[in-house]
Amino acid sequence: MRIPEQTFAAAQAGDPAALQHLLVQLRPDIRRYAAYQCKRSSAVDDVVQEALIILYRRIGTVRTASALGGWLLRIVGRLCMLPALMFMRGVEDLRGVEESARFARMPVDELRLDLVRALESLPAAQREIVLLRDMQEMTIRDIAAHLAITPEAAKSRLHRARAMVREYLLAGEAA
């Protein structure tokens, strides 16, 4: 990864053209890093997008152009670990092993009906984003383009929708 010092300095100073040039130039390297480090190939596009967003926002924190490659490698590595960390956090959010065990013992047909009811209870915007991500397996970037919103808004909407589904399912278990 060879970035001219003047392009790097201009990007750090906030020059939009230099920053755009830097992002375009680094995208293939970031993609290669993500393809190498991420275990799931479906996560690569999301990791690339997130790494570019982080680079855009935090370019000022990188000391030199020569340090940029190592910095990006660490960012991509952390982003590739996020699905596992989110899974672990999600398991903790189930409020213990007994709640997980109740869902595991629930008849599949009953669980499916509860899930359909939970999805139907969502506002249309949240229901649509869950279906696009989890049923059609679209990436965050594709969902954002489809809905004409930012990737950040798509992630936020998806997070809220999943939280609402989880609350619905847990409330149904308590009843």
3D architecture notes:
The chain has 2 domains: about 5-85, Rna Polymerase Sigma Factor, Chain: A, CATH 1.10.1740.10; about 95-175, Arc Repressor Mutant, subunit A (Orthogonal Bundle). Helix 2 (about 15-35) crosses helix 4. About 20% of the residues are buried. The chain is elongated. The N and C termini lie far apart (about 60 Å). It is an all-alpha fold and about 180 residues long. The chain has 9 helices and no strands. The chain is about 80% helix and about 0% strand. One of its GO terms (biological process) is DNA-templated transcription initiation.
Care to give the gist of this entry?
This protein is mainly α. The protein has helices at 5-12, 16-37, 44-58, 68-93, 97-105, 108-121, 124-135, 140-147, 151-174.
List keywords for this structure.
175 residues; mainly alpha; Rna Polymerase Sigma Factor, Chain: A; Arc Repressor Mutant, subunit A; 79% helix; 0% strand
Secondary structure layout:
Layout (H helix, E strand, L loop, with lengths): L4 H8 L3 H22 L6 H15 L9 H26 L3 H9 L2 H14 L2 H12 L4 H8 L3 H24 L1
Helix pairs in contact: 1-2, 2-3, 2-4, 3-4, 6-9, 7-9, 8-9
